[in-house]
Amino acid sequence: MSVAGSGHAPGIARRRVQPATWAWLAVFAALVFLVAAPVARLLVSSIQDTETGAFTWHNYAIAYGPARNYAALGTSLLYAAEVTVVSAIFAVPIAWGVARTDMPAKSLIRALILGAFITPPYLGAIGWILLAGPNAGWLNQAWMALTGAPHGLVDIYSFGGLVLVTALYAFPYIFVFTADALERVSSEMEEAARILGSGTLRTILRVTLPLVTPAILGGAIVVFLDTVALFGTPAIIALPARIKVMTLVLWEFFEFPVRAEAAAAYAVPLILITVALFAAQRAILGRRGYVALTGKGGSRAELRLGAWRWAMFGYGLLVVGLAVILPFAALAQAAFSHAWGRGFSWDNLTLGNFRYLLFTDPAARLTIIHSFVYSAATAFIAVALALAIAYIVSRRLTRRTGILTALCMAPLVIPGIVLAIGFYAAWAPPPLALYGTAALLVLGYTARFLPIAYTSCMASLRSLNPEMEEAVRILGGSQLRAIGSVVVPLLKTSLVGTWLLVFIPATRELSTAIFLVGAKTRVISVMMLDLSENGSFETLAALGFFLLGVTVVIVLAGYKLLGRDFMLRRS
Amino acid sequence: MSKLQPDAGRSRLALNGISCVYGAFTAVDGLNLEIVPGEFVSLLGPSGCGKTTTLRMIAGFIRPTAGTITMDGEVISAPGAALPPERRQMSMIFQSYAIWPNMTVAENVAFGLKLRHLGREAIRAKVTEMLETVKLGALADRYPAELSGGQQQRVALARAMVIQPRVLLLDEPLSNLDANLREEMRFEIRRLHDAFHFTTVYVTHDQGEAMVTSDRIAVMNAGRIEQVDPPYLLYTRPRTRFVAGFIGRTNFMNGACGAQHVTFDRFALPRAMFADGGAGLHGDVTFSVRPQSIALHRAPAAAMRFGCLVAGRLLERAFLGETWDYVVAPEDSLLRLKVAALPFQVFEVGETVWLEFDPEQMAPIARDVSV
């Protein structure tokens, strides 16, 4: 006990600052740069005079002064509400069919819904222009040929068209949430109702569906929020149809002369709506008691539908047909045509559009390379940062980890388009003057996708017993050694999965890109928007196919590596 | 056992009044314990008694909020600073085993040796020898996912022991095994301890495990140690009500100690027949009386100690296979005593029986919790 009296042995001298504290400071600084500063900049510039920097409400007057800007807010809410309802009508029956019944070809339907999930909405919208453009669209052509009618049947450039096309690429969210919940409902729940004398239909309506209502609502809120903040589809469909939604108004503020401060003011209510709905979603999903009640166990027998199984299959096929099969048929035709309007003929067939993109036009080639390089860089940064934060938080290496989680998840409640405007306002001008650089895009993307990476890393780390790392330490290895020898090797596959979960959406990200892109940093999504404005649908379709082809290859590789559900998993 | 009684001058590990307080909750409350080199000590107690917290403080994963921990006389944990786990030269077996699934059995076992920069040949020899010792020689190149629970447990043991730790820590290592395997592994752990003599601290809530493996057991309750003794002394001479009730089954009897007799409810036993001739007994004393220490008879006989016979009525019975469980009330008494009898000693409910006490085996219990 020689040293007991002094209270300290030589080996246990205090260190002023723990390494963990440095790590905390580093990730905190990164989060301030990526998230806090842009949002703060946005809020400040909305109440600041551009010339003098003095406090003013003037920007709000500019933003909400014109009646049409004010009306766009209402239009956006109505648009999002209708998309949500239509998505639920698409998603819920199919989710039930796939999860609980003996409906045929379930994996085909699932695969095609995944197809809808990975299709950039604006590409689907282009497909629908080819299908249902007034008079020229294939559906209208067919209708006129069949009936001899002088005009087409459907016009995609309408509010109804906008809602339908948006819902076709939004419904997979509700599908994922609902199918996941339905798969957890034990058949015993339904059997308990049946044994008490309830019929099949009554059981479905009174027991099964109520049990998964929180999941449906959770998915519905995601769809609503996504739609309010959606830019691509409105830009392609609502703009020609002269329908004004909020995101288009925001875009207008960025046309010459750029009025970022008015855009900031206009965006603030959008944040409030999102935050409120997100709180609602938390409250709804937080009451997860519903489905988890039975815990594990409990069989999940398939309900035998008899002849109705074909009706169920037909409905599923209709929805994925509208979302994937028809638009992709139209896009394929355009991608391999000299001019899509000339229809199917041998002399119209060409690989020229692909050749043009990949070989002839150096600008196009560069754009494609940009997209993949920026997305890969984004995915690396996001995964590394998210892993560091998730490790500090989950292993409680320091105090004050709540602020890290909050900052990391904040981009979830800030519409991407708003975050991009904040990012522009904060870092495009001096002192950093990042305008037009690749760094601005990559960091903007990183901020946008940080919540995905963080949620995924957190889930992986939770599945890893901390005793694995403690075993390293007690045997004489440092914390870093534990991370290197145990954490990273064990999480390798899920880190690759996380990387893909960031990389794939980053390759098609539009609403962040349109505000942050520069003349020399053009990416595929922005190029597609330009092509659509020029009416170059053949090149656009070819570009879309190329992007999707690459995505499918990556997703399939992901499947092979990580198992079937890695993208449709609910975190 | 007596050679292992602690001796302050040469203790390997000493916990000096350590506490661990989380906000308003006190997990460990001023705990003192000394462990000599080569000793196997268990921390035994119900869940939430602070035993795992204590173990994690010894390992260095948690810092005490008061008190110190010394190893071979050197302070390794104090409230302000603690030697990190990796510099304590200890090893630990975790509840989940914490076998690294990305490494083979041999790689798992070799890990600690590699950190100690041993040569490749030396590592291989040591790993092979250790794997033979835990009977896993044939499985060296398997991955943990390909092993059964018991085999994973053996990997954990090999990995912890191969580095020849100064202190070996085990945190409920058998709680994830099924009952048969658990029984087997108790003896295995004791066998390995007899082979290597590592100073060992073993945390468990299972008294059977603690009894089989330990030189001494520290019974913990509510963050404090109630009693530290070799297993048989804990059972025969429990010093607190908690220890008596936690280790095995018992009856509590309140007695008043007089000059000649100790008087219970409606009967008395001769004072001289208690342990140490009744020395140290005074005033009101509670005794712990094991059901096995009371014998049942149909009628008094010459061979019985007359002064210790009490008539009673049999109230309940249950046959458990290895024993009968009877509940007997001494005549006119409100006491209800559990009595264990051999299978052939059959009595009927309502029968009048004679209880024969053995005062030597009746352990006086401290009225308040102290060590």
Describe the fold and architecture.
The complex is a heterodimer of chains A (571) and B (371). Chain A has 571 residues and is mainly alpha-helical. Chain A folds into 2 domains: 39-331, MetI-like (MetI-like fold, Orthogonal Bundle); 351-571, MetI-like (MetI-like fold). Chain A contains 24 helices and no strands. In chain A, helix 11 packs antiparallel against helix 12. The relative contact order of chain A is 0.12. In chain B, strand 7, helix 5 and strand 8 form a beta-alpha-beta unit. Chain B is built from 8 helices and 20 strands. Chain B has 2 domains: 2-245, Rossmann fold; 249-365, OB fold (Dihydrolipoamide Acetyltransferase, E2P), CATH 2.40.50.140. Helices cover 23% and strands 32% of the residues of chain B. The longest helix of chain B is centred in the middle third of the chain and has 18 residues, at 179-196. With 371 residues, chain B is α+β, with helices and mostly antiparallel strands. Chain B has a 6-stranded mixed beta sheet with strand order 6-7-8-3-9-10, sandwiched between helices. A 5-stranded antiparallel beta sheet of chain B has the order 13-12-11-14-20. Chain B has helices at residues 51-59, 105-115, 120-133, 149-161, 179-196, 207-213, 231-236, 241-246, and strands at 13-22, 25-35, 40-44, 66-71, 74-77, 90-93, 167-171, 200-204, 216-221, 224-229, 251-257, 261-264, 267-270, 283-289, 295-297, 309-319, 324-330, 337-341, 352-356, 363-365. Chain B is elongated. The A-B interface holds A 1-4, 6-9, 11-14, 465, 467-468, 470-478, 481, 485-486, 489-490 and B 14, 16, 59-61, 68, 70, 73-78, 80-92, 94-96, 98, 100-102, 111-112, 115-116, 159-160, 163, 169.
